[in-house]
Each structure stands twice: as structure tokens, then as C-alpha cells.
Amino acid sequence: MKRKWFSVLDLAVLLTVLALSLGGFLWLRTRERAESVSVFCGDECVFTLAFEDVEEPVSHTLQTERGTLTLLIEKDGVCVTDAACPDGVCARTGKIARAGESIVCAPLGVVVVLSGDGTVDGVTG
Amino acid sequence: MKTNVKKLTRLALLCAAAIALSAFEGLFTPLLPPGAKAGLSNVVVMLAASTMGWLPTLTVVLFKAVFALLSRGAVSAAFSALGGLCSAILLLFLFRYGKLLGVFGISLLGAFTHSAAQLLLSYALYGAAIFAYAPVFLLLSVPSGLITAAALRATLALSSRRQHQGKERKI
Q: What is the pLDDT of residues B4-17, one digit of tens each?
């Protein structure tokens, strides 16, 4: 194979990918703290909760068709503490706290989304 | 006929290697950020794309998806198939027409395309919130592309040396 290991164009590609990634990190850092958490199971919103209504940490277990998933909702964020999925990706995500962040459990079809619009003032669903 | 058997055997070996590397990288997936994979099995896809052409490359991608289906379920298989197909098509195109790119650049673009395709599928399935993962996945495509390119270079060098030794023995 006559192809070079590294060319000038490769450097341009590398810098572009790094710039896109860095821009994404900066964009995430500028997001405000989340004001509410919404939990979706498939297309259905199971519940929405405003963080200002959380006095004590709340543990919430979701029963889906494919297994159970347990969330810990605190005043400053939310995390998955236990899930009956084979890879455990959702539990390894850790706590999320900024608007726009999410936790996805693909095997169970559960998505936890934080939003910062401040329009939620209670528990629904 | 002899050539066909040789090609078929080589393809079978590549499929087996892709599955073995997929299983192996699963061992240290817990050390990586959620949802991220090292992409070691993409070395095999790149090897197929650079030396064997369209059909064998897409066959390797298909075998990887079937392995994902059997080991991790339908959702993982869909991610593997879409990411793998988009990445493989780009790799095949770049190895044929991307004369100005080096091995590293092609590998990096392959890893980037793999991640981007999977992010778009995630967006279709789970909505825009998934883009919070995008910066990590894009950043990880750099070391993944580097490792894949280095492994491909080493494999091709070894293969070339062995072919040369084989010819010398025949003489």
C-alpha cells in the first residue's frame, strides 16, 4: 500500500474533529442548571418533576416491559442507581444536573431528560 | 475456483476476527464513558475495505451486527449495523478516491462517521437530548481512529512480509 501514514489533509481533519468536540463541550458548560426532570418510557412521558419540589432524595422505580430501572432524584440532579439492562450504560452515566443532559437506557427504552425552561411546577403522570 | 476458496477463507477469518475483537473490547467497555466503545473491530472493517472491496467489507459489518444482536439485543444490533454500514461505505469510497488522505485521516473519518450515524439513530429514537453525548463521542473518535490506523498499518506490514517470504520459498 503506497498510501501515506499521515498527510496534511489528515491534520485538517483532526483539527476539525477536535474543534467540533471542544465546541460541543463549551456549549454544554454554558447550559444553566436544570429545573426539571422528565422521564420517558418509549414515546410516553411517565412523569415530570421540578427540582425545587424535591426536599429529600427520592428513589423512583420504573417497571417497563423489558425490566425495572431505579432512579435517584436529588435536589441538584438525577442518576440511575439500578437497571435490569445487560450493559449498565445508564447506571454508569452518573448524576446529570444541567439542562439538556440526558440518561438513555436503550435496552429498556427509558430516557431521562433534564430541562431548564422552568415551566414545570409539579408531578404529572 | 481455487481463488474463490482462498477469498472465502480469508473473509471467514476476517468475520471471526471482527467478532472476537468485538467480544474482547466488551471487557474494557466499563472503563470508557457510557455508550462509548473502543472500536477495535473496526480494524477488521478497515482491513477489508482497503484490501478486499465492497462485498467482503459489508459482509464483515453484517456479521458484527448479527453478533451484537445475539449478545446485546436488537437495539445494539441496529446501532452496530447503521454505524458500521455508514462507516464502511465511507472507508471504501476514501480508500478508492481519497488520494490526498493518509491512513490516519481515513481511519479518523471512519470512526467519526460511525459515531455520527449512531448519534443520528439515537436522535431518531430518543430525541434531541441525546446530543449531550456528542462531544464525548466525537472526541473519542480521535484515539479510536489512531488505534485503528496503527493496527491496520501493522497488520498490512506483517501480511506483506509474509507474502514476500512465501514467494522467496517458492523460488
A: 888 899 999 999 99
